[in-house]
TrEMBL record:
Transmembrane segments: none annotated. This is CYTH domain-containing protein. Residues 3-177 form the CYTH domain. It holds the Pfam family CYTH. InterPro entries: Adenylyl_cyclase_CyaB, CYTH-like_dom_sf, CYTH_domain. It comes from the Bacteria. SUPFAM superfamilies: CYTH-like phosphatases.
């Protein structure tokens, strides 16, 4: 069965208030873990073009282990078919991606704290160059409506009673925008 990862993302305005609100909901956050992601796109694709139906790769390194993920957006950039696997050699995986017609786009470095609220995964991220974010995500069957699930996740986030700013861009787009603004 094909899996679909569906998420909503928020810029965190008041980090301490959010952490308290999550604790009130019974969410226990992990200690921070450094994640270093290299994003990949097909060589023919560029920022500003639609992402729907386009496969994107990510090679993540956490504590010396490497995870390769492919996401293909469906309803929007945050409702994607997803496949992932552990890889033994990040350098070889990078070379394989280049041979398959992908190119590296941006690097995303973040400290991530994770928790759970029922069947939903929560990530409180501090993303280098772009700041703090909350992600709420779940995995569903490919047949489920991404927009309907996102509405449920958004309702839960709004029920926390803290100031959050919903964003619809992925981390690679946010990092790319920050880099462009510095240039």
């Amino acid at each position: 069965m094909e899996a679909q990862e569906i998420e909503v993302k928020y810029r965190v305005i008041e980090r301490d208030a959010l952490v308290q609100a999550l604790a009130t909901q019974g969410v226990v956050l992990s200690e921070p873990v450094l994640q270093e992601d290299q994003a990949y796109a097909p060589a023919w694709w560029d920022y500003g073009k639609p992402k729907g139906g386009v496969p994107f790769g990510r090679l993540r390194t956490v504590r010396g282990k490497h995870l390769f993920t492919v996401k293909t957006p469906r309803d929007n950039e945050m409702a994607c078919l997803e496949s992932e696997t552990i890889v033994a050699d990040a350098g070889q995986m990078h070379d394989a991606l280049l041979q398959m017609g992908f190119r590296p786009t941006v690097q995303i470095v973040k400290e991530r704290r994770t928790g759970r609220a029922g069947r939903w995964s929560l990530c409180l991220d501090e993303v280098k160059s772009v700041g703090p974010f909350l992600e709420i995500e779940t995995v569903t069957s490919a047949e489920e409506s991404g927009l309907a699930v996102q509405a449920q996740l958004d309702a839960w986030a709004n029920g926390l009673g803290v100031k959050l700013e919903r964003v619809t861009d992925t981390y690679d787009s946010l990092v790319r925008l920050a880099q462009d603004q510095l240039a």
